[in-house]
Design brief:
The complex is a heterodimer. Chain A is of the alpha+beta class. Chain A is about 35% helix and about 10% strand. Chain A has helices spanning about 5-35, 55-65, 120-125, 150-155, 180-185, 190-195, 205-220, 260-275, 275-304; strands at about 45-50, 95-100, 110-115, 130-135, 140, 165, 175, 200-205, 240-245. Chain B has helices spanning about 1-30, 45-50, 100-110, 130, 145-160, 220-225, 230-235, 240-245, 255-265, 295, 300-305, 340-345, 350; strands at about 85, 95-100, 205, 215-220, 275, 340, 380. Chain B is elongated. The chains are: A alpha+beta, B mainly alpha. Chains A and B meet through strand 8 and helix 7 of A and helix 5 of B.
Chain lengths: ~300, ~375
Amino acid sequence: MTLDRRGFLKLAATGTAVAAGSLAAAEAGASTGASAHDAANAFGVLVDTTLCIGCRKCEWGCNQANDLPKRERADFDDKTVLETHRRPDVTAFTVVNRVAAPPEVRQAAFAKIQCMHCVHPACASACIVGALRKQPEGPVTYDAWKCIGCRYCMVACPFQIPAYEYSRALEPRVMKCSFCFDRIVKEGRQPSCIENCPEEALTFGRRDDLRALAHAKIAANPDRYLDHIYGESEVGGTSWMYLAGVDFARADLPPLDNQAPPVLTETIQHGVFKNFVPPVALYGLLGLVMLSHRRRDGETGEEE
Amino acid sequence: MILCRQMPRLALFGLIGLWVLSCAGDAAAAPVKKTGHQQVPELNCRECHDCAQPTAANPCLNACPRLFSAQSTGAHTVAEAPEKMMLDRIADQYQGVNFDHRLHASMSEMSQGCSTCHHFCPPGQIPPCQTCHGGEANPQNLRQPSLKGAYHRQCLNCHREWSHETDCNVCHLPQAKYAKSEDKTDATDIMGQSHPSIRPPDKRVYHTPYQKGEMVTFYHQEHIDLFGLRCVDCHQKENCSYCHDVQKTPATRKSMEEVHGICSGCHESAACSKCHDRVERPAFSHASTGWSVGRFHAKLECRACHPTGKRISKVNRDCSSCHGGWNQENFRHAVTGLQLDETHAAADCADCHIERRFHEKPTCSPCHEDQRDFKKVPPGKYVRVSS
């Protein structure tokens, strides 16, 4: 078989078509990946920042329920910490901040921040060993036993939530809110922060019910709330959603794209390796080129 | 295959058909004429009634209808309200909170009344919080906070606004100092008391940014006395922080509509100069119109004579120019402060009031020749004029 110019182009076109087909299949898989578990029916939380009074009872509840350096309840009565802007760290999975409200807003607003438990989490997508996993019930959980400490999750997270135990020499862990996974799935209770919220500014429920609740709240009090549920569609949706009366960016909730970051990255990466079709097609093509060249060399040799 | 594809559509048509038939059947079987509130198209029966066919005997009212507020609960007074409430459901964790219901009820009269807190009530009732807000959060109804959430939201919604205190121990006494609040003998304790009555100002002068007339003089007391206005008629949506905010910040700028809305609700005038002036204005005096209201009309509300708010032209001092319908039978002379005796009551009005000119001094001379003065020898007895 000789490979003339026309033959080569045909072959190349076939290879490209196969690769493109597998990419398309992978993309379809990625977009349905978010609903591989039932996102609407999974657990979520609605945070109403207009109700939050900054009492820090959620912080205390979190401290008690998780493997964190234990502190007294009285420690959390200290309101002076609200004067400075804080972020979750290895000692606290959640913190409350005073929202820097514009001067025309007389009411001080507060917002609790923690892992948003994205519907399609970038951290889990970035994790090369599968230590971070999106559970069908909603939480994004972390398995310290699998973790190799690469900290890709910290780079990937659009909310910069995962913290790392740099101070721990042996077996440092990535630290972030677990949505009290064992508590809500095995014990059937609510997360500790939510149980401890006196204002019930945090509402625990099915994500779809919470969306309906949030829309009802906005419709009933258009003066009180911005007409937006943060986390309903940001980064492809998050399990924790927020209502606010002032710009969300002030409450540490940055404006983000509605597409989940993994949709793009996974489409490319999974597409390339889907069913090994592109590598097989590529090597097949190269093999054919090699074969045809060897034959041509042989023919030329015979002529000589 | 085609049939399979059409199945959902066929099923849909079938369902619609069934629904139409059932509706027609209902209408034929029970041609109930809708009356009263049933005629309101947007009312959903199930919003208030728990059963399918409520009757007058068994209205099966929903205890927590979100449709109604306690505005419709009618005449409930502060005196009827419980005086104190001990909120001690979680006594194992915190001491009971001694809630002064009477004080809060009297304060609520300055804003939205009972409905300030008792927001969704069946008509005519004011159930306690526990009726709707059970002990635990109900996952079936996320809109309804549990009792813990309901209490905290109600209390803090106002308290955070004016005292800005959100510390737990503002209401929950710390365990170490355990002592029943009811036992307190502190003289400054406000338990069970009502909000002190607020003395309204006589007048207020507003300085506005309107250059052609920056001052608006508002006679506050006059509006209460003359127009019989209640506080809440003008002071709507005002809450504790309106008076009590300890950290007042420049209030949000009100829009033109908001500022003028309170006055324009009654005063229909497009002319700015109606209220705005460069100087402080004197109070309105009826004498400035050329007609002094005098003692007989001073206590009347403006609307009694000006039902449409318009000026009355061609008023003269003759009573009959307005009170044309008065005659000897229907006029009670006692309203003038003089009750006629039997002899004089039988006399014709014009006997004393010459040519029925009532604003002029009456005379006795047509009957009495002794030149007597009616004040010294009254034709009856003087009585107190009831206002």
